[in-house]
Design goal:
3 domains, alpha/beta, Diaminopimelate Epimerase, Chain A, domain 1, about 40% helix, 5-stranded mixed β-sheet, about 20% strand, globular, inorganic pyrophosphatase (n-terminal core), 5-stranded parallel β-sheet
Length: about 425
């Protein structure tokens, strides 16, 4: 990727407007860019956007002109909206599929997908920042962005992982395949994992007690990370025995834990960090998210408590109604209407496809202020969701796009049934419910 033109534009600009996406990858991108550019004494303003609709772009252009900005940088978005962008000095640092038009002269686009490379938005921004000045400490956010976008193990992201290990800002440990290694009580983490065929938390607590593992740790309940080496070994062996006893695969219980060595304990587990940022973004706590990225943890517990309550409500409704949703052999359509917040429908589809269904594609639809928000997730390698979503949404006068395994779109209200029918037809599937 050639950053030379973008670097030149940045050097010639003093007042810069950064527009970034509201998910984990986008928030990390904004953090990387703003920190690097402030070191160069640039005046920075950050705007976080859920999408780049025509109205949002018009508002951004109005602010750009009113405040006399010199340069606009779009991070983790922009490529899919080239034809809508204003005639201003623009840099795009993105990794989504670009709109198929000739790039206007006022725009410099840096996008790895154009070179058939896989790299998250924060990774693109980190490489850009590295060309500006010494920004090694910002590699943490490239790691978190990649994990947030499920890209940590693929493409150019691996090079950033190796660099982070080399400069000792990242340590990768093998551990149990569960969430909350550092900051969740062990019995909660195990209860919410798929490791044990036990019904509830009390059974998990008894299981841990039978292994002679004391959950008390200096007046607090131990997390997985607080266990001694011997306790971890007893836990591993106990889980393996329990799985064998229940005819479950005893080998598929481990995963990599990405530990950011210079972050506070609350943010040290990169997977937890990415989940926190996604939660802040989904709740539209953008200012609080940026403060968190600057090290202010004041709102962390409060925001996460709100997020967990909302998520539990939406998940409960979804699982209760899962047999009533339209489906095909391989696709589940969660047509939620106003039952699920548009900002959370992507999170729900991700959870459902990973834990609650055997379907290979899950598509969620939820009401938004200006239409219907669509979010799809896939574990069908032969299907390109970006292509399918784009084609179907365009047929209905909407817009769609994203990645092969995860894509989104927007259509008018009232067209949900048509969308579901066309989506199924595009994949040669028959709706039977």
């Amino acid at each position: 990727m050639d950053f030379s033109k973008a670097i030149e534009m940045t050097k010639n600009s003093n007042k810069i407007l950064i527009v970034s996406h509201y998910d984990c990858d986008g928030l990390c991108s904004a953090k990387i860019l703003s920190t690097a550019l402030k070191k160069e004494n640039k005046e920075i303003t950050i705007r976080i956007a859920k999408e780049l609709s025509k109205n949002i772009i018009e508002n951004i252009e109005e602010e750009f002109e009113k405040e006399n900005f010199d340069l606009m940088i779009f991070s983790d978005l922009g490529s899919s909206n080239l034809s809508l962008l204003p005639n201003k000095n623009i840099i795009i640092l993105d990794h989504h599929m670009p709109e198929k038009i000739e790039i206007p002269e006022n725009i410099v686009q840096i996008n790895p997908i154009v070179e058939n490379k896989e790299l998250c938005g924060a990774g693109v921004c980190y490489l850009f920042a590295s060309k500006i000045n010494n920004n090694q400490e910002l590699i943490d956010y490239a790691i978190v962005g990649a994990i947030g976008d499920n890209q940590i193990e693929i493409g150019e992201n691996r090079k950033i992982v190796l660099e982070a290990e080399k400069i000792k800002r990242l340590k990768i440990e093998k551990g149990l395949k569960l969430f909350g290694h550092l900051n969740r009580p062990l019995h909660y983490s195990l209860t919410n994992s798929k490791l044990l065929p036990l019904k509830d938390c009390s059974e998990v607590v008894q299981f841990i007690s039978d292994l002679k593992i004391n959950l008390n740790h200096n007046g607090k309940i131990k997390s997985y990370y607080d266990l001694s080496k011997e306790e971890k070994e007893r836990l591993f062996l106990g889980i393996i025995k329990e799985r064998i006893r229940n005819n479950l695969d005893p080998t598929n219980i481990f995963s990599d834990i990405y530990l950011l060595t210079k972050q506070p304990r609350e943010l040290m587990d990169a997977l937890e960090f990415s989940t926190i940022l996604n939660a802040f973004g989904r709740l539209e706590k953008f200012d609080e998210a940026l403060k968190l990225l600057d090290g202010n943890l004041e709102k962390l517990e409060e925001v996460m408590a709100i997020y967990k309550r909302k998520l539990a409500t939406y998940l409960s409704w979804t699982t209760e109604n899962i047999n009533n949703f339209q489906q095909t052999k391989n696709i589940l359509f969660i047509n939620a209407g106003e039952k699920i917040d548009e900002n959370m429908i992507g999170t729900i589809t991700s959870i459902i496809i990973n834990s609650c269904t055997n379907k290979k594609i899950v598509v969620g639809l939820a009401y938004a202020a200006d239409g219907v928000k669509i979010s799809a997730r896939s574990r069908m390698p032969e299907t390109d969701l970006n292509e399918v979503m784009n084609k179907v949404c365009e047929k209905l006068g909407g817009k769609g796009g994203g990645h092969k395994e995860a894509a989104g779109g927007k259509i008018e209200k009232g067209k949900e049934e048509k969308f579901i029918k066309l989506f199924a037809e595009e994949l040669k599937e028959t709706i039977f419910n």
